[in-house]
Design brief:
Elements lengths: L5 H14 L4 H8 L3 H15 L3 E7 L8 E7 L5 E11 L9 H21 L4 E11 L13 H10 L2 H16 L3 E13 L2 E12 L1
Parallel strand pairs: 3-4
Antiparallel strand pairs: 1-2, 2-3, 4-6, 5-6
């Protein structure tokens, strides 16, 4: 059975980020949370890029309603090599350790890792991918199209975009490291509605 590692998944994450049209990912991230578009591109890249593997979205070993976001299966046996669950938030959600949002998302990541272990079984690598959308500025014109425009504006009144990104990274790595090893990186999403956007990602490998 092919081994799926954090390195092979981070490769897929980066390739997924590069596969969007110019500014497409920024638009998707500002108008809704981007975990499904990123998951879908990752699945296609893994499906085509890993010999002997099948990438399955919304996968369930028994076809029941409890499904995993993404699974990488052995092409011959259809047994899972890896299960990946995704969650998405904003850097302002992780601005301060102790925020209710931080606790909420950390609990969700922990729940995803336990869920993956339950459905994957022994020999399956379990991962949780947290995406943090990071707008570099607030929308110049208020618009309901930008889903969290007021929250973005408030967060950037309190500190610079660079300081917010640093604080969110420190909080995310500190809390997520309690559940496993963390690989991290940044996707350059482009610009939408006059706002430059990056997506910070944190891939947790269950211990």
């Amino acid at each position: 059975m092919p081994e799926i590692t954090a390195e092979s998944l981070t490769w897929a994450i980066q390739k997924a980020g590069e596969s969007f049209a110019t500014n497409e990912l920024a638009y998707l991230a500002l108008t809704s949370k981007p975990e499904h578009p990123v998951r879908d591109r990752m699945a296609w890249i893994l499906h085509n890029g890993l010999p002997g593997c099948i990438a399955a979205r919304e996968w369930s070993p028994n076809g029941d309603r409890a499904r995993s976001d993404l699974a990488v299966l052995d092409a011959s046996s259809h047994k899972p090599s890896a299960v990946v669950e995704l969650k998405a938030a904003y850097t302002f959600d992780f601005a301060h350790d102790g925020q209710r949002a931080v606790d909420k998302y950390v609990r969700m990541v922990g729940s995803d890792l336990r869920k993956g272990s339950a459905v994957g079984g022994s020999g399956t690598r379990i991962f949780s991918l947290l995406l943090l959308t990071h707008p570099m500025s607030a929308p110049v014109q208020p618009t309901p199209v930008v889903k969290y425009g007021p929250e973005i504006a408030r967060s950037l009144c309190e500190r610079s975009a660079a300081d917010l990104a640093h604080a969110a990274r420190e909080t995310a790595v500190s809390r997520l490291s309690e559940m496993g090893s963390v690989s991290e990186g940044t996707l350059r999403a482009g610009t939408a509605f006059g706002v430059e956007v990056a997506i910070k990602y944190f891939l947790v490998s269950a211990d």
